[in-house]
Amino acid sequence: MSFKVVTIAGATGLLGFNIADAFLNDGSYKVKILRKKPESENKNASLLASKGAEVVYIDYNDKNDLVKALKGTDVIVSAIGGTELVATQCALLNAAKEVGVKRFLPSEFGCDIKEMTGEIHPFHKPKVEFLQELEKSGMEYTIIVTGIFYDYLGTLGFDHKNKKATFYADGNTKIVCTSLPDIGKYTVESLKLPEARNGTIRVAGSVLTLNELLKKYEEITGTKWEVSNDLTVRQRHKNNTAPVPTIIDDFSAYLTVSLDIKNLHNDKFSFTPLPVTEGISLLVKS
Ligand SMILES: NC(=O)c1ccc[n+]([C@@H]2O[C@H](COP(=O)([O-])OP(=O)(O)OC[C@H]3O[C@@H](n4cnc5c(N)ncnc54)[C@H](OP(=O)(O)O)[C@@H]3O)[C@@H](O)[C@H]2O)c1
After folding, report:
1. Closest atom, ligand 1, to C-alpha of 36
2. What's the domain of life for this entry (predicted)?
């Protein structure tokens, strides 16, 4: 199937900007970006518009508005963030069905949620809920699984400012992580993969254990780090046991054991991803 028009929702965000930029750099697609009304200045939107993206303002609560904006779209990529992930993406999906959009890429770009067993973290529940709606809708879809963004490695307990690491799991736990520009490129190329049709595409910029990542941080910062283990965060959060972790810490602990993503599709792609050492170097310099 050939796709010509790609509409990206949430393109002003960290992830969405990189995806829109990759489509524009590819040069084979007409790129539209959807922005929430009312119109407002945004550096990323201006940059994308200067590279040829059409910026369309919409009210996600107004179906006519959405239908008008999506006319002619072949593929929707949702990179929406925020707390209304289900309602906003459902609105997009309903309008997409009405105008005959061919494929929908939901705002995933993290863990392999469909393959995860056990309790789903509250932060992931909206994603699970929307995936169920998407599958029920009959719309063709692709889920892109990327592990954690290099920019978010700090969430797993790596504190490069203070040269300290807190491990929320065994040091041999494997972590899949990927740079944002590569996630953009993987998203673009996924449109050409037969496996992407109603499927999950799993990619990794790097797969290293927590211990190996720590070693990279130590090499890059040129110093030995202080390391501590905090293996009971989830339990303490659940049981309200002191010191009670925040829900953010609980999510970090949950993420740490959810990033050993299997069955990667890296060999289906044309490029070599940016190594995590480069991602860490950029983080350390920032
Ligand atoms: N794997 C990882 O390490 C990782 C890390 C962070 C995020 N993520 C995932 O990446 C995706 C995007 O996250 P992000 O942090 O880049 O997003 P974000 O910056 O929070 O939001 C992206 C854009 O979505 C639009 N938006 C926000 N709330 C909205 C709403 N209620 N309705 C419609 N549009 C809304 C806004 O664009 P406009 O105002 O221009 O419309 C915003 O700039 C999410 O699925 C998130 O879970 C993954």
Report:
1. 41
2. Eukaryota
Which pair of tokens denotes residue 220? 């890059």
Query: Residue 70 is which amino acid?
Result: L
Pocket of ligand 1 (CB under 6 A): 10, 12-16, 35-36, 60, 79-82, 84, 88, 107, 109-110, 146, 148-149, 152
- List all residues 6 or more positions away from 32 whose beta carbon is below 8 Å from its beta carbon: 5, 6, 7, 8, 53, 54, 55, 56, 69, 73
The pLDDT confidence band at residue 118, using thresholds 50, 70 and 90, is confident
Q: What are phi and psi of 174, to 5 degrees?
A: -85, 140
Among residues 57, 47, 46, 49, the alpha carbon closest in space to that of 31 is found at 49
User: Which among 83, 113, 95, 86 is positioned nearest to 34, based on CA atoms?
Assistant: 95
CA distance 40 to 183: 27
Please report, rounded to a whole number, the percentage of residues in the chain having pLDDT higher than 90. 97
Cβ-contact 184, 144 below 8 angstroms: no
Tokens of 246: 């925040």
